[in-house]
Amino acid sequence: MRITSLTLIAILVLATAGCSNKEEELQATIDDLVQKNLNLTNDVVARDQYIADMVSSVNAVYSGLEIARQEEATLLRRVSAEESNEIVNNPDVRQQVIRRVSELGNTIEGSKKKVASLQTQLASTKKRYTGLEEMVAGLQKNVEEREQSVAELKARVEELTGQVETAQREAAEKESLLMAKSVELKTVYYIVGTRSELEEKGIIQDVGGFPWGLFGSTTILSSGLDESHFTPVDMTTTNEFQVDGEIDEIIPMRDEMFYQLEPGTGQTSIATPAEEEMTEQMQKTLVRVTDGRQFWQSRYLVIIKD
């Protein structure tokens, strides 16, 4: 059978169309492979970068923990029994150690947060990175060990601080007691009044004498006298008393070697303003103490005036 020219042309056209379709399919396959390869390369790069970032973060935490461990070792030596006296006795050193322990605790707390962040990152990824998970788990354990160790160090510092506070409180109490005792030892009491006034207040009483105490009786301090009637003064600073009128007797009796009686002038030192005004023209008597230690062998001074 003879093929006509029209038929031949049709066959050529179909053959050409078939080749064109195959070339397009081949190009599409190539483009798809190129894109897949690019995606795979990007995934590998991203994975490698992710791993590198995680490892860098883990190493950074480990580096911080190592610095913290060295600082902790230094502080442990300072709070040891051999060197703790410096902390106890030197406030500046004590405050410095407290501050450094606090900073160490902050460092450990920061490391804990970084580990928690790394764990969150690992948990959020679709892929499992067993090696990284093991690294972070080991890091977490290291942080927990440092945290426990720092807690023990802090407890030791607090113990030493407590000892200091106790010692300071006891010292303050002793000082307060000594001051109170010193004030008590230096405090003496005096009162001035007529015989009838002092008897009425129960300050003095007469004993002995014959008959019925009319002759030869002795005036003494009453037992159980009320100190509230007396005026307290410091024996180390009170060296004289000025009395309105003349002095009849001093009870308990003092040796005249330890004081002098002189005419008084000006305002009396032991009278109220009202009494001063009423007795402005009255004769005054000055009791000048010349030997305080001997004069105040008795803590009470009763001046009986006429």
Summarize the structure.
The protein is an alpha+beta fold and 306 residues long.
Explained architecture:
With 306 residues, the chain is α+β, with helices and mostly antiparallel strands. It has two domains: 5-183; 201-305, no CATH class. Helix content is 61%, strand content 16%. The protein contains seven helices and nine strands; from the N terminus they run H-H-H-H-E-H-E-E-E-E-E-E-H-E-H-E. The protein has helices at residues 5-78, 84-89, 91-124, 130-186, 195-200, 273-278, 292-295, and strands at 187-194, 204-207, 218-221, 231-234, 240-244, 247-251, 259-264, 284-289, 300-305. Helix 1 (5-78) packs parallel to helix 4 and helix 3 (91-124) runs antiparallel to helix 4 (130-186).
Number of domains: 2
**What is the H-and-E element order?**
HHHHEHEEEEEEHEHE
- The total of beta strands comes to 9
Helicity level, as a percent range? 55-70%
First-last Cα distance: 178 Å
* Residue-averaged pLDDT: 81
